[in-house]
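Propose amino acids for all 188 sites.
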């Protein structure tokens, strides 16, 4: 897979749309945290990268702040929103995620990139070119937008195709609580 081509952005946005309540928040962020810890342990102990550092933890906190923003953006939408509206929201969420995480990478600079000086030019470098030895960050941005659009479209379509709408979603009135529908009289 290309770098930054991930379902995580769409998953966080769509979780905000479809998983209401505290349990949705807890499950979503709990799974994300467990996955991140497993991946970080793999990179730390299996690959020899130093990820459990103060800078690494601070950068991870910046990523979680960005994920929280995506989740909150999803909360602004209703599950009954039009499919194309949800896809647009997912793409906008990916844009926000990219700017927030690259700004955090520039500000915290956990890998001590010499290009990330604390000036407007350094910030623009973090958003467009990145650091030497890696693909330019605009390619990460492109992949972030493409994957978020694709996966948001897939998640939203599958939720719309599998969800049964309640009468309230359809705009119909529901019978008052405790009332029973009148039985039809049988004619002989």
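Proposal:
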């Amino acid at each position: 897979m290309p770098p930054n081509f991930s379902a995580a952005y769409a998953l966080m946005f769509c979780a905000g749309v479809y998983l209401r309540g505290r349990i949705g928040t807890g499950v979503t962020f709990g799974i994300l945290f467990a996955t991140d810890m497993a991946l970080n342990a793999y990179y730390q102990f299996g690959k020899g990268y130093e990820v459990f550092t103060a800078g690494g933890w601070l950068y991870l906190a910046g990523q979680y702040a960005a994920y929280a923003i995506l989740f909150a953006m999803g909360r602004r939408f209703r599950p009954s929103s039009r499919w194309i509206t949800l896809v647009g929201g997912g793409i906008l969420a990916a844009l926000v995620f990219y700017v927030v995480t690259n700004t955090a990478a520039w500000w915290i600079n956990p890998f001590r990139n010499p290009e990330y000086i604390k000036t407007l030019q350094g910030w623009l470098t973090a958003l467009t070119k990145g650091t030497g030895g890696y693909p330019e960050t605009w390619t990460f941005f492109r992949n972030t937008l493409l994957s978020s659009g694709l996966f948001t479209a897939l998640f939203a379509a599958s939720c719309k195709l599998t969800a049964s709408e309640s009468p309230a979603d359809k705009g119909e009135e529901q019978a008052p609580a405790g009332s029973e529908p009148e039985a039809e009289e049988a004619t002989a």
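The CA atoms of residues 22 and 28 lie 10 Å apart. Residues 172-188 have pLDDT under 50 and may be disordered.
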